[in-house]
Amino acid sequence: MSIHCGLSVTARAAHPVRVVPPVPATSTLFLVSTRNAGESKARDPEDRRLHRADLRIESWAPTREACIAEAVRALVGSFLGHTLPPATGVISFEVTGSTDAELLRAVLHSVILRLALVSEIPTLTRVQATATGLRLRCDVVHTGAIVVNGAIPKAVSTDPVRCARTRRGWWCSARIDV
């Protein structure tokens, strides 16, 4: 079976604390504990080891824009799970960057900043390419209308953020400080 679109949220550890069942259709969401900070080296030699306040998100999709939208969904799913309340509003914003990785970092940073400053969480994200970057349109819900199931993200880590085309589509990866 091939998966054409999906996401995963992983904080590498020896024993998973909670695994969320797959979201319908082609997406999958995994949440794993960060309790074991002394684990073996990550599969990517450039990756540093996770510590207690790390979260790694990964997403994949046929297009860059869909992959970035899935990365936002993974970020939100890390603390809300896969059941989201109905949206209470719609926002739009644009990000710029010279590389795909910079665009992904800017999108994730904008989502985290909006969560901290105006208490809005995207429940559905649509991404569109522009001449200078990306335009996002997000259905949002206010944090007062939700029950948080995990740690709230604080920032995109200084570790490399990756967004690249693969043989099967696009893949994104980022570490998030929680």
Q: What is the tally of beta strands?
A: 8
**Gap between N and C termini, in Å?**
33 Å
Q: Helix count, per DSSP?
A: 2
Q: What's the alpha carbon Rg, rounded to whole Å?
A: 15 Å
- Which structural class fits the helix and strand makeup? alpha+beta
Average pLDDT works out at 77
Describe the largest sheet: 5 strands, antiparallel
Query: How large is the share of residues in beta strands?
Result: 25-35%
Query: SSE string, helix = H, strand = E?
Result: EEHEHEEEEE
Low-confidence stretches: 1-47
Shape: globular
Helix content: 10-25%
What does this structure look like?
The protein has 178 residues and is of the alpha+beta class. It contains two helices and eight strands. Strands 1, 2, 6, 7 and 8 form a five-stranded antiparallel β-sheet that branches. Helix 1 runs parallel beside helix 2. The radius of gyration is 15 Å and the shape is globular.
